[in-house]
Amino acid sequence: xxxxxxxxxxxxxxxxxxxxxxxxxxxxxxxxxxxxxxxxxxxxxxxxxxxxxxxxxxxxxxxxxxxxxxxxxxxxxxxxxxxxxxxxxxxxxxxxxxxxxxxxxxxxxxxxxxxxxxxxxxxxxxxxxxxxxxxxxxxxxxxxxxxxxxxxxxxxxxxxxxxxxxxxxxxxxxxxxxxxxxxxxxxxxxxxxxxxxxxxxxxxxxxxxxxxxxxxxxxxxxxxxxxxxxxxxxxxxxxxxxxxxxxxxxxxxxxxxxxxxxxxxxxxxxxxxxxxxxxxxxxxxxxxxxxxxxxxxxxxxxxxxxxxxxxxxxxxxxxxxxxxxxxxxxxxxxxxxxxxxxxxxxxxxxxxxxxxxxxxxxxxxxxxxxxxxxxxxxxxxxxxxxxxxxxxxxxxxxxxxxxxxxxxxxxx
Amino acid sequence: xxxxxxxxxxxxxxxxxxxxxxxxxxxxxxxxxxxxxxxxxxxxxxxxxxxxxxxxxxxxxxxxxxxxxxxxxxxxxxxxxxxxxxxxxxxxxxxxxxxxxxxxxxxxxxxxxxxxxxxxxxxxxxxxxxxxxxxxxxxxxxxxxxxxxxxxxxxxxxxxxxxxxxxxxxxxxxxxxxxxxxxxxxxxxxxxxxxxxxxxxxxxxxxxxxxxxxxxxxxxxxxxxxxxxxxxxxxxxxxxxxxxxxxxxxxxxxxxxxxxxxxxxxxxxxxxxxxxxxxxxxxxxxxxxxxxxxxxxxxxxxxxxxxxxxxxxxxxxxxxxxxxxxxxxxxxxxxxxxxxxxxxxxxxxxxxxxxxxxxxxxxxxxxxxxxxxxxxxxxxxxxxxxxxxxxxxxxxxxxxxxxxxxxxxxxx
Lengths: 412, 412
Hints:
Chains A, B: Belongs to the gamma-glutamyl phosphate reductase family. The structure is a homodimer. The first copy, chain A, contains 14 helices and 16 strands.
């Protein structure tokens, strides 16, 4: 079936979802969870095929690990669907409303987008997570997963569609989009059929989609995040935040990639920091000034300032002023999460006002920039663009709005 | 100067605007108004050159009229700038905020986009309107007007830049982007330099920008708007709304283009309606059933259902059910403003729930779908897309948001 046919079927399903009640959608989410739970063996068998293929192809251990499902990971997907059922339904929320002088009532109401396209990489759990969030927000979803996870995704989607049908909602609300690379191009060209595309994955994937899609895109996730230790920073606070933001989970987009240290703070901060980073297994790629504060610093090259390592590597530079720090962030930030550690109210004020990013943090770990930590209950991704949604995206960010205007015959 | 150089200068200006206070911006808007007022003679002389060129080129009277400035129209632009100064500043508004269990404070705050690109057609007043709205919302603006208005736009922008400089804000916050057609392509390719493009004009222009821009776009304005007269509609109410929505200002995007009439309502509605439309100078392009209710109906062809006439023309069709009406709207709507006239609560409920558009209206004229009528004080355009903003766009819709996260050393 072509992408166009799939998208048309999704649009029809979306019309049903748009007027489905919360009770219907929650029942469907539980039915999807039940069906996925029952299909555990089939899903694990399908996943074993994907894993074997990846190992034969010589893929890295990290990729194979992301691909691998276990009984625990399937249970996590099942629980995720039930968690989404427990979240409030954004559809129908009145964002604002008023009555005009002539008695015409205006209400801005949340409505689903319609059809969402997800383009994503190895992890098969994204398949269930995205399907759950899209269904709850009243959207049909076209899931374009990685070919490396083709068997796992097919097994998961089959279960989810069974659940939808059990609950009396259209199975075509959740569809896997299989096929060769050209299929992704067709999805990106399906303007008018697909309402929004959300790419999730590495910088290369996201950049490709953003540059080639005619369908509107929500850009997610690339985080070249900076931590700036200001002249007035408490060294112990700065070190705790640095270690947490760099090492607690280095593979995620809100991990810190570059450390900037004010020259006045460097003597009392960097010697201990470099030792602690070395203890934690972090390789520091530093400028000359940084390397003067401790052993083992690898000389930084220009590209280090623009690298999202996603590993136990850290670029580091000593700056002479807050202006120099803000200038460095402006030149190299991907607009995700930028942190200042400081005891100066004026420095904090300037940093938060002048740094342009989805999140700016003062004296807190950038690891808090996350839908779960923000209390959203679930997250479809972290937007690094300025249109529509910026930062962690929960269910309300998966909706548009519609003005409902009600009168009794008024004209202009 | 290349588009890239202009965009870089705009980015630098935008950094200043992002932290400018409301008082600074309002003072600049008044200085721009003063400068434009003083430049009235120069602007009218420049406009006379544009008008003469357009007349020589044999452009239509409608286009020449849109192009022509008068002392009154210049005064309207001046007043518009002062009106924008009087509007609340959206920048810095806290959209929502909370404190996490660990004491970390999260605030979602409105911030400017940065650099906005406007691509628009003949009317030179858009130049001043867009500059005012962008400045107030803290955005630098690159104005890509029509070549037919080149002299007028240059004179207006020169005055606005003088005003900015008088007020101590960077003149490069408002720049005209001159040059051949290729310049528009450069603007659409300036991802990372330009934050958002807003095309305003005909369907051809908007479609071209939407399909070719790598910069995120806010789609505005094409309105193939329907008015459905339900079986239970009061004929007098329906006729008043129809005449207003079709004839009060037929050249605008919220004017009605297609009339759908339930077969049960047709005998008591269409004879009077066709007579009244004829009296108002409206040409009705109707299906066979419609033409059976009165003389002078031109047979509708397939493309009438998809035509945004923007003139005293109206497509008309008799339908047998609410479902058929909703189906017709789904097949032909551009998602702008769709109206039902009915006395049935259930029909109104179904129509507003099932029709997917920026605005759905019950018993009121679609001419109310307008930033001014909505009380926004000013309008940059009417978005017909689902991402970011949908419907009339005021100052808040010209902003993005940023999460400001403040802690006292918290880590995960």
